[in-house]
Structures are given as structure tokens and as C-alpha cells.
Amino acid sequence: MSVNGVQGVQPGTASGAGQTAESRRPTDQLGKMEFLQLLVTQLRYQDPLNPIDDREFMAQLAQFSALEQMTENVRWARLSYGLSLVGAAVKYWGTEGQPEIGIVYAVRIDSGEPLLNLGNREIRLEQVIEVAPPSFEEE
């Protein structure tokens, strides 16, 4: 028995549950959920007389684990960097596309992303152009 191809996941299964095309973020990269869906689909439609080699399966799981760890490391690095900016003067892209300057007073985490509080506004880390270290005045 041969399998010619996989047609995709039907609505109401793991990938379609609770999401519409509009709520999914467009991306050209393979995320962890897409990777797991691909792996499950591969297992579901494999030929029972010629199953996937267990070494290949373990290699795919190791790749997934490495991807997960790298994603987590990047998230923590971004949070740490955002927290390190407290007290620093930052130059950032303002709402009109012009550079502006402000002091970071606090950091708020919104959906895992650090938002820098500049007193009268919040900006995303991606808006920062330049950072000046905090200046401590001695009395």
C-alpha cells in the first residue's frame, strides 16, 4: 500500500480548533505547533507495512527539542535586555516615524513581549534605535 500525499488537516482537528485564518499570524517559518502537526500527520499516514525508522523519528524529536530550547532562550534574552534598559535614555522611532528620546522608567510584559514605559507612553523593544547608559549622579 502506498500513500500518495497528505491533503491537510480537517477543520475541527488540532490545527483548526479555535483558530480562523484571520487570527493566525502569517509567517514563513515553521513554528512548534506546525512542526508537531506535521509529525503527527506523518505518523498518522505512514505505511503500516513500512513504518518510519525509529532513528529518523528520534532525530526529528531532537530537532524539535532544539527548536523549542532556542525559542525559549531568545524569549528570555529579550526580557533580560528589556529589564536592563530601566533607567537608561533611549532613542526610538516615534508614532510619526521620527526619532524621539525618553528615559525608561519601567518594563511591562504583555503577551511575553517587553514594553518599555517612558512615563507618558510605552514602546516595543523593536522601536529602540540607540541606548545611553543610566547616569548616576553622586551627591
TrEMBL record:
Stretches that traverse the bilayer: none
Record keywords, A-Z: Bacterial flagellum biogenesis, Cell projection, Cilium, Flagellum
Coiled coil spans: none
One annotated GO biological process: bacterial-type flagellum organization
Region Disordered, annotated ranges: 1-27
Keyword Ubl conjugation: no
Keyword Cytoplasm included in the entry's annotation: no
Extent of Polar residues compositional bias: 1-21
Similarity remark: Belongs to the FlgD family.
The protein's name: Flagellar hook assembly protein
Organism: Symbiobacterium thermophilum (strain DSM 24528 / JCM 14929 / IAM 14863 / T)
Organism taxonomic ancestry: Bacteria, Bacillati, Bacillota, Clostridia, Eubacteriales
